[in-house]
Amino acid sequence: MKNLRLHIIFLLSFILVQLQAQDSIFKLKGQVDAYAGINFSNPVQLQTGARFMPVLSIGKTFRNNLKFDSELSFDSYLNYHFAGSVNDISDSKIKPYRLWVRLSTERFELRAGLQKINFGSASMLRPLMWFDHIDPRDPLQLTDGVYGLLGRYYFQNNANAWLWVLWGNDKTRGWETVPSERKIPEYGGRMQFPVPKGELALSYHHRTANLAGVLEPTLIHGSSTYREDRIGLDGKWDIGPGLWAEYSLTHSSPDTAYFQPWTKLFTLGIDYTFSLGNGLYLASEYFRYSSANEIFNSGKNVSFSSLTVNYPVGINKIGGILYYNWTDKSWYRFINLQRQSDNWTYYLFFYWNPEVFAIYNNISGNNMFSGKGIQFMTVFNF
Question: Which of 102, 222, 227, 326 could disulfide-link 303, Cβ–Cβ 3.0 to 4.6 Å?
């Protein structure tokens, strides 16, 4: 809490200074959303909630196209799940969502603070979901950020280089099941370069993970912290249909027998917009997750296929996401009806999924889409 207050004081001071400049740009925007739904589990659950997310941004451009800008936003929400007096659940919180400052030119940017860092070519089943929790079923695409320093440089041939240092993060992100040790910095980088008909990229990240709070102390043989290194490779090509591939290899060395040291994730995808009516968009991905005690062993495997469908009808849109788990032969179905009216957007969701998720199992809110149910959401952007 003390660190949060210091961040807020710093950013507010910066904003007050910038507001004194005549050529500064000051914007206040945000969104309000509310939802209500019913989940036909046993017992039946009624779900409702609301969120208010204000976004304060300010920017100032100096000579030689040097720009200094910042963003301050908060996520305040309240959720209720009614399933009988014993099983009722409520959840409410106010937390910083984005809290960063940035210095940039036409080819370079340096951004510090609480920010979103994501990259990769896949859209639904993402091996390179290293620092975010974006759920493709979420129409708002909300995700917590990470505290860190990110630098990017853009070359004249459209290649770009990333470098980052993260610190003070102790929550799981992406596919992680063990959080980072918040007092030890994480670091990594990415190099992305053009190739014929597309682009390729190579990524790397190093962190120190902490088993404390994940396993009982008696199950940890030595230190609760251990080193983890990740290498990622991704590419995408436009050859008529869009093609992409994404691969992530993680090596860790926890001092316990409960985690395998090698984890491999792979996705291969394709999409195309057919000239039918207003344009029918289809995208499909194949995803494979494996963990093993040796790098070339097959180990434990889980495979998914996904299909995304979108079709616009005037100011409305009909969409759906279908997953199939090849390992346990289960289906995940999600249908989204959307209507846009000025600053208002309305959604109607239908879902029919297994009671226990085997995908995105560490993304908060997945229980809202487990089993069978209907949900309505309205969003106002200001």
Answer: 326
Binning pLDDT at 50, 70 and 90, where does residue 81 land? confident
Q: Tell me which residue of 43, 143, 5, 25 sits closest to 371, measured CA to CA.
A: 43
**CA 201-361-207 angle, 5° bins:** 45
Q: Is the pLDDT of residue 330 over 90?
A: yes
| HEC-encoded secondary structure of 265-284 | EEEEEEEEEECCCCCEEEEE
pTM over 0.70? The answer is yes
pLDDT score at 299: 85
Strand ranges, E, within the chain? 25-39, 45-61, 67-82, 89-104, 108-115, 146-154, 160-166, 186-195, 198-210, 225-238, 242-252, 262-274, 280-292, 300-313, 316-325, 330-341, 344-352, 372-381
Dist CA 58 CA 294 (whole Å)? 50
Give the amino acid at 190. Answer: R
Q: Check if the beta carbon of residue 197 is closer than 8 Å to that of residue 243.
A: no
* Tokens standing for residue 92: 């409410």
β-bridge pairing 344-352 and 45-61: unpaired
Cβ neighbours around 295 below 10 Å, total: 11
The band of 32, judged by pLDDT with boundaries at 50, 70 and 90, is: very high
Q: Which residue has the tokens 């790098």?
A: 295
**Could you give the CA distance from residue 88 to residue 192 in angstroms, rounded to a whole number?**
48
Structure tokens at 313: 């009808």
